[in-house]
Amino acid sequence: MDMLLFSSSHLAVAIKTGIVTGILSLTEGIAVGTTFASLANYPVDGNKEMMAIGAMNMVGSCTSCYVTTGSFSRSAVNYNAGAKTAVSNTVMAAAVLVTLLFLMPLFHYTPEVILAAIIITAVIGLIDYRAAGRLWKVDKLDFAACLCSFVGVVFVSVPVGLSVAVGVSMFKVLLHVTRPNAVVLGNLPGTQIYQSVQRYGEAERVASFLIVAVESPIYFANSTYIKERIMRCIREEEELIEANKETAGLKYVVVDMTAVSAIDTSGIELLCELRKTLEGRSLQLVLANPGGTVMEKLHLSKSLQLFGSNGLFISVGEAVAHISSLSKAHREVI
């Protein structure tokens, strides 16, 4: 214990290197396991993979072992050799031990190109260019992560390739969190179904209503963007009404919260601020189909009282039908 030195100037570098190495080792091991699991059609438990890699490195550190993880090249050689169980690893370890102890002079002059050829032959069959083409068609950011990972692994190293791929994937997650979809909905004729007016050409706008669906949780990271997006939809709707010279102006803004699985205090403040802003423009904010978790937080924050009985409904169809009937009754009374 007295040989451990915690006052060295290199301690911070060692801690940073250890954290980065650990993250890359876990990422590489799980990525390799997932790749071969998809090829052989067997399940992979990420938690067990992490526990196995951690236990392996803890035991290895007692004998000054090098940091280890799931090797992609050796896994590929094992897979192409027909290995089915973990016994293959025992056989391979025994063969490596015998080679290191007794056969090293025979392999001393073996060209590295031969070793590279063995690995390339085993790995080249794992390259699925058709899958890359599908990624390009479906999601450009997924394709970018795939391409960066491939280039980094082939031309630099596995840790660099995985680091770049993880960075691109994290950027994609942050992009979706901070800039969620908010689409304008219209009614499908003859039904109570409301879908995006951009995706469904037959969807019709409802007079006096603007229906906006928010397709993500509402957090502090995206609350400002969601408010700006809704206000932009309102401006576009008002411009469209003015351009078409429609007699029925915009009166109600319905926010479909079906896809809002969670909300925090910033999201609740967003709804309250949006309600006040719309009231100043003689518009009524209506919430449709908030989930159980969202309803509970709105109730605990006492924000539900601000919307009243005509500001909260279990579906967009019910909101439009109920408000339209009240508006019609009010006009008849007048």
UniProtKB/TrEMBL annotation:
Topology of the protein relative to the lipid bilayer: Multi-pass membrane protein
Mainly localized where? membrane
CDD domains the record matches: STAS_SulP_like_sulfate_transporter (cd07042)
**A biological process from GO:** transmembrane transport
Mark the transmembrane ranges. 86-107, 113-131, 143-171
**UniProt keywords, alphabetically:** Membrane, Transmembrane, Transmembrane helix, Transport
Transport among keywords: yes
Annotated Gene Ontology cellular component terms: membrane
Q: What is the similarity comment for this entry?
A: Belongs to the SLC26A/SulP transporter (TC 2.A.53) family.
- Name of the protein this chain belongs to: STAS domain-containing protein
